From TrEMBL:
<comment type="similarity">
    <text>Belongs to the nitroreductase family.</text>
</comment>
<feature type="binding site" description="in other chain">
    <location>
        <begin position="15"/>
        <end position="17"/>
    </location>
    <ligand>
        <name>FMN</name>
    </ligand>
</feature>
<dbReference type="InterPro" id="IPR029479">
    <property type="entry name" value="Nitroreductase"/>
</dbReference>
<dbReference type="InterPro" id="IPR000415">
    <property type="entry name" value="Nitroreductase-like"/>
</dbReference>
<dbReference type="Pfam" id="PF00881">
    <property type="entry name" value="Nitroreductase"/>
</dbReference>
<dbReference type="GO" id="GO:0016491">
    <property type="term" value="F:oxidoreductase activity"/>
</dbReference>
<keyword id="KW-0521">NADP</keyword>
<feature type="binding site">
    <location>
        <position position="44"/>
    </location>
    <ligand>
        <name>FMN</name>
    </ligand>
</feature>
<protein>
    <recommendedName>
        <fullName>Putative NAD(P)H nitroreductase</fullName>
        <ecNumber>1.-.-.-</ecNumber>
    </recommendedName>
</protein>
<dbReference type="InterPro" id="IPR052530">
    <property type="entry name" value="NAD(P)H_nitroreductase"/>
</dbReference>
<feature type="binding site" description="in other chain">
    <location>
        <begin position="137"/>
        <end position="139"/>
    </location>
    <ligand>
        <name>FMN</name>
    </ligand>
</feature>
<feature type="domain" description="Nitroreductase">
    <location>
        <begin position="12"/>
        <end position="168"/>
    </location>
</feature>
<keyword id="KW-0285">Flavoprotein</keyword>
<keyword id="KW-0560">Oxidoreductase</keyword>
<keyword id="KW-0288">FMN</keyword>
<keyword id="KW-0520">NAD</keyword>
<dbReference type="InterPro" id="IPR026021">
    <property type="entry name" value="YdjA-like"/>
</dbReference>
Length: 202
């Protein structure tokens, strides 16, 4: 069991997406424990519409090669120094989690499954945060590229919805201010301020 223990509020409000990792390895057991807790996410009909492909230890090297070949065009033409710099966004996270969801042909089920998997991913991010592990949900275009899908092992009828990078970090980014409730909430039955009768009739 993880020694740290943030309150739910502390985890939600304090978590930030980490885009700069310090290269410290992530323990596989910690990651699997996080995943085993994160699966308690809400999901309709208990379909548990997710499966994960994880790279966390020595398999990271093979993944780095795949990411290099996929994400850095003509990497062979770059100097070793420039390539190393460009590769840092892939080599510094301690773990990668690719989240794969079924793409149900029925729109309702497909949306539900994506929504459920999103709550699952957020659970992973919050639980990781409690371990002191930062994360960033990434959706680069190449997640849908056939060669990349094949290398990850996504089957027809499945979609890779997230490349989750996880790892330790030295700097906590400042979060962008969020809108407050008075900007996003309308009390049921009340007219919005500045709304004219014509707006309501329209
Ligand atoms: C569905 C989704 C896709 C995202 N894709 C990317 C991405 O491709 N690259 C990236 O740097 N951040 C990505 N993010 C992270 C957001 O940039 C980040 O959540 C946002 O800036 C708010 O910052 P915070 O998470 O620290 O509150 C994504 C987040 C979500 C939920």
């Amino acid at each position: 069991m993880n020694e740290q223990s943030l309150s739910v509020r502390e985890a939600i409000v304090g978590r930030r997406s980490i885009k700069k990792f310090n290269g410290q390895p992530v323990d596989r057991e910690d990651l699997l424990n996080i995943i085993d807790d994160a699966v308690w996410a809400p999901n309709h009909k208990n379909r548990e519409p997710w499966r994960l492909v994880v790279a966390c230890g020595k398999e990271l090297f093979q993944l780095h090669d795949l990411l290099r070949d996929t994400a850095i065009p003509r990497w062979q033409d770059l100097s070793a120094e420039v390539l190393e710099k460009q590769m840092q966004k892939f080599t510094t996270p301690g773990a990668f989690v690719f989240v794969i969801v079924p793409e149900d042909v029925r729109q309702k089920q497909r949306l539900e499954d994506y929504a459920a998997a999103s709550t699952f991913i957020h659970n992973i991010q919050l639980l990781a945060w409690d371990y002191g592990i930062g994360s960033c949900w990434k959706t680069p275009e190449y997640l849908d590229a056939p060669a990349f899908r094949e290398a990850i092992g996504a089957k027809p009828g499945e979609r890779i919805i997230s490349m989750l990078q996880l790892g330790y970090f030295d700097e906590l980014p400042k979060g962008k201010e969020r809108k407050k409730s008075d900007e996003i909430v309308t009390i049921f039955g009340q007219k919005e301020e500045n709304e004219t009768l014509e707006d309501v009739i329209e």
